[in-house]
Amino acid sequence: MKRNLSMVLFAVLGLALGTSCEKEDDLRSVDRELSEALNSKFPEAGWVEWEKNRDFYVAEFHNAGTEVKVWYTGNAQWCMTETDLGRNAETLPETVKEAFGSSAYVTSWRVDDIDKYERPGETFYLIEIEKSGERDRDLFYSESGTLLKDDKDRGDVHPDTKI
After folding, report:
1. Spatial distance between the Cα atoms of 60 and 79, rounded to a whole number of angstroms
2. Which of 17, 65, 92, 106 is the most exposed place for a label (fewest CB within 10 A)?
3. Mind listing the domains of the chain with CATH numbers?
4. 137 and 103 in contact (C-beta within 8 Å)?
5. Average pLDDT for 147-163
6. In whole angstroms, what is the distance from residue 130 CA to residue 161 CA?
7. What φ, ψ does residue 7 adopt, rounded to 5°?
8. Which residues does 117 contact at the CB level (< 8 Å), separation at least 6?
9. Tens digit of pLDDT for each residue in 64-78?
10. Residue 161: in which H helix or E strand, if any?
11. How many angstroms separate the CA atoms of 71 and 82, rounded?
């Protein structure tokens, strides 16, 4: 019995240590300059989780049930805000909704995710779509509804990603 209990405790400890190391870029805290920059731009941000992604500091929080990620440089300059809009195309501005609605993809592809990206001087929307037997696609639209790029599932968007 003692041996079994020891093995269970050892397994639980190993699992706990393994999951805590899974995301080594998670930050428990950031310097005051980054916190103040976030609070200045997003005073509604409550519980915030920070991580380092490449050369950027990323603050993640929920605002009215929506996941928001805010990207900063190491000297607390805002680079990008990513807002998860879910799967519902109704969350898009009319111009983007109409453009996507008249695309060849609307009838046979399924919307997997929609994100809004704001960077200094630009705002764009990423509609990730999927279809059985096909490689996923990323459709990038400007606020005016112009299709900026139709790409085969390119992966994550960063502040320095070229559209």
Report:
1. 14
2. 65
3. 24-70 (no CATH), 77-163 (3.10.450.360)
4. no
5. 90
6. 22
7. -65, -40
8. 80, 81, 82, 83, 123, 124, 125, 126, 157
9. 889 999 999 999 999
10. none
11. 8
Largest Cα separation within the chain, whole Å, is 68
Type of residue found at 37: A
Amino acid identity at 148: L
Strand order of the β-sheet with 78-86 is: 26-27, 49-53, 56-63, 66-72, 78-86, 110-119, 122-130, 137-142, 147-152
One-letter identity of residue 74:
G
User: Residue holding tokens 């195309």?
Assistant: 89
**Calpha distance 102→142 (Å, rounded):** 15
For residue 59, what are the CA distances in angstroms to 22, 38, 42, 129, 158? 18, 8, 11, 26, 13
In terms of Cβ atoms closer than 10 Å to its own Cβ (0-12, 13-18, 19+), residue 132 is: exposed
Strand partners, 29: none
pLDDT digits (tens, 9 = 90+) for 19-50: 333 334 566 667 899 999 999 999 999 899 99
The type of residue at 102 is: S
Residue 27, amino acid: L
